[in-house]
Design goal:
single chain; about 475 residues; alpha/beta; globular
């Protein structure tokens, strides 16, 4: 349990954070009422997946609503058995001792000794074990509040009112197919909020994108009006440290508006939008180009000029792709560029590109990296390339005056595919693509998109 001490209208939590509690209970009561929760029956919120963003999301809810234990229960599920290596345990010990509030909390909870023993190599820590104390394996430098961790998936989800999907897109289908087995006897329909940013490509019966919310819908049969996507330009650790941020929760009006209100905090503003699929796809698209940005930064010794050239080309490709996916793409320009900007600055996909270019990581190591989690941009490169290579989606080429697959107008995407998927080229080739003298002015690509009717609703499964 997370203890609290009330003090003049504020709550002082066991992680040392102070938050104004005004209005929180009212928001909680309002959501409970909409879900038909009776007195004595807590609102059950469960996070599935304990990566950086999934853990921070659960911790934000715990910090805000945890004191109202009779009205809400907040838990997070992660798989058991993931050992913490010695180097990480040593670093974690340094983090603990650098934070007096965290040190005091662990001593008070009689949990400090195990970190001393792990530092000395006398015992092994596990990811689910340290998460209970507020340490996410993918974000060791940012201690969270203590969390209620469940390692049995059935126990975690069988009676949940709200499930928060914090899984990578590559794991979402498999886990929710398992969850569906535990929901066979359910009477009430849960709400699902997906934080996952990634896509899959399907080519039959027509080329289209499969998003995590669609995977959840197909795996569980939960209607789409009860499945929402939350995303925005943010870095998980900075949000937990109360850097000002905003996000959008997208989906059916029935739930997105009350959930936006419930999730909103003074430092974390949540807006709502009806366009679920397009926002979700855009969340995956920016990860593609973030990897290339990291490569360019590393290969040019952080040259501002080279990075700006890359940014011009990658954003023009993204704008071009949004014209294929959205009937009103101009409405996405702000959110897409903002999310791209923060991911290029500090996201794990940009970091991954840098490490590849520096030779500190190799593609043979896979796209699940210790201390970072899943690099979702890698699978997204393959999915977008495969999808946009289909001749059935052909668009007019401005120079050769004949239809071509959309990917032929996206040279950066093509090169990333050759580097990351087929491995025909090394990371150095991203600079070759940028310096190709035949490369069109990025402005021309945007003009092509704006002056032609490119919109392909079938890409998002729409008629």
């Amino acid at each position: 349990m997370v203890g609290s001490i009330e003090r003049k209208g504020h709550n002082l939590y066991s992680n040392g954070s102070i938050q104004n509690c005004n209005g929180l209970e009212e928001k909680l009561d309002e959501l409970r009422g909409l879900l038909g929760k009776a007195a004595g029956d807590p609102l059950r919120i469960v996070g599935v997946g304990a990566g950086a963003w999934g853990s921070v999301f659960a911790a934000l809810l715990q910090d805000s609503y945890g004191p109202y234990r009779e009205k809400v229960q907040i838990r997070i599920w992660r798989r058991p058995g993931r050992a913490v290596d010695r180097a990480t345990a040593e670093h974690l010990f340094e983090v603990i001792n650098s934070r007096e509030d965290v040190l005091r909390r662990l001593i008070r909870r009689c949990a400090y000794l195990k970190y001393v023993e792990a530092r000395l190599g006398d015992r092994t820590l596990y990811a689910d074990e340290i998460l209970k104390d507020g340490f996410c394996l993918n974000m060791i430098n940012t201690p969270l509040c203590p969390l209620k961790v469940v390692t049995n998936l059935q126990e975690a989800v069988w009676d949940a009112d709200i499930v928060v999907n914090g899984l990578p897109s590559t794991e979402t289908r498999e886990v929710f197919e398992e969850i569906n087995r535990y929901w066979k006897e359910r009477i009430t329909v849960p709400i699902i909020i997906s934080l996952s940013k990634g896509i899959e490509a399907a080519l039959n019966p027509v080329p289209h994108i499969i998003t995590p919310t669609l995977m959840i819908n197909r795996a569980t049969g939960i209607p789409m009006e009860n499945i929402l996507y939350l995303g925005g330009p943010n870095i998980a650790s900075e949000i937990y440290n109360k850097e000002y941020a905003n996000a959008r929760i997208c989906g059916a009006e029935k739930w997105r508006k009350p959930l936006a209100k419930f999730l909103r905090q003074p430092h974390f503003i949540v807006w709502d939008n009806s366009d679920l699929a397009t926002h979700e796809v855009m969340g995956g698209l920016k990860n593609v180009y973030a990897i290339g940005a990291g490569m360019v930064a590393a290969l040019t010794n952080e040259s501002a000029t080279s990075k700006s050239v890359y940014f011009a080309h990658c954003t023009s490709e993204m704008i071009f792709i949004t014209h294929l996916l959205a009937e009103e793409p101009e409405k996405l320009a702000g959110p897409l560029l903002a999310d791209t900007y923060v991911t290029l600055l500090k996201g794990r996909n940009a970091w991954y590109g840098q490490m590849l270019a520096k030779g500190e990581l190799s593609l043979d190591m896979g796209d699940s990296i210790s201390g970072k989690g899943m690099i979702q941009g890698v699978s997204a490169v393959g999915a977008f390339y495969e999808l946009l290579s289909q001749s059935s989606l052909s668009v007019p080429h401005p120079e050769i005056n004949k239809p071509v697959a959309p990917v032929e107008l996206c040279p950066i995407l093509k090169m990333l595919y050759k580097i990351l998927i087929t491995r025909e080229q090394s990371s150095q080739a991203i600079l070759k693509a940028l310096r190709d003298e035949t490369l069109n002015d990025p402005r021309e690509r945007i003009e092509i998109a704006q002056t032609h009717a490119f919109y392909k609703p079938s890409l998002l499964g729409q008629p």
